[in-house]
């Protein structure tokens, strides 16, 4: 089974870096020039409102992108800065925007793992976490922040990271979903930063909400968001079934499972795919379906319980 034959991905995103585009009345977006296999064409920052505005996800440590964002709001007042999560392609530029505007920063909190690290796990400094980030104002699920002509509600969406928030604009049926849902690709869920158990619960939470136009951290907006979320839930369940199908043939390590499941994958994504498989295995071990010796870790061998 190929990785994406069951999700209606849209990779048509002609937005050029540094250009401000009004995608809907009251929502502008600016693309950062940080393309990669993980970020697609780059990180998308959003400007909400008109006159007195909020900026969502200032992006990576990138002076040109900060300048483009500030240029886009010239003559306006930035009253709020929101951050969906603390990966290095989303939060480090916050300091520059705050310094230039004086706006307070709203987020769930500093970076943290979804669970304690196991003894046998080596710390991976390249995990992409922004460990320097701290919000001025910590917000939690259900908290509402109002600005001039807009109102955003924090929606807890842990899974991609433990501190991931989406920001819903219920009156407009918009949701700024960060990296939890993306229109161009599935999200990476890499333990211990990420958790598949949390990720699936967060998908269910979004599916149960009213918002149906999603603005994502990478790639184009997603119309009919709840339907897309249902595709993602089905996709993850199919991925789990593929893992169980492989383990039914006998015990296996993660590289063996990746080769069996991700046919024709971009070699640069093999490591990430391994962590996604680990995230599923962690969930399956917790549910008693699969077993391993010791903790469920990237180097482990797995078998049906």
Secondary structure blueprint with pairings:
Layout (H helix, E strand, L loop, with lengths): L19 E5 L2 E5 L12 E5 L3 E5 L6 H10 L4 E6 L11 H8 L3 E3 L29 E2 L5 E3 L4 E6 L8 E5 L4 E5 L17 H12 L5 E4 L5 E2 L1 H24 L3 E2 H8 L8 H17 L3 E3 L8 E4 L1
Parallel strand pairs: 4-5, 5-6, 6-7, 11-12
Antiparallel strand pairs: 1-2, 2-3, 3-4, 8-9, 9-10, 10-11, 12-13, 14-16, 15-16
Textual characterization of the structure:
It is a single chain. The protein has 6 helices and 16 strands. A hairpin with a 5-residue loop joins strand 12 and strand 13 (about 220-225). About 25% of the residues lie in helices and about 20% in strands. Helix 3 (about 195-205) runs antiparallel to helix 4. The strands form 3 sheets. Strands 1-2-3-4-5-6-7 form a 7-stranded mixed β-sheet, covered by helices on one side. It is elongated. By secondary structure, it is of the alpha+beta class. It has helices at about 65-70, 95-100, 195-205, 225-250, 255-260, 270-285, and strands spanning about 20-25, 25-30, 45-50, 50-55, 75-80, 105, 135-140, 145, 150-155, 165-170, 175-180, 215, 220-225, 250-255, 290, 300-305. This is MBL fold metallo-hydrolase. Pfam families: Lactamase_B, WHD_BLACT.
Structural class: alpha+beta
- The strand line-up of the biggest sheet is 1-2-3-4-5-6-7
- Percentage of β-strand residues: 15-25%
Rg, please?
A: 19 Å
Low-confidence stretches at least 5 residues in length (pLDDT < 50)? none
Which whole number gives the mean pLDDT? 95
| Strand runs, count | 16
Protein name: MBL fold metallo-hydrolase
Region (Disordered): 101-133
Domain Metallo-beta-lactamase: 41-218
Biased composition (Basic and acidic residues): 116-133
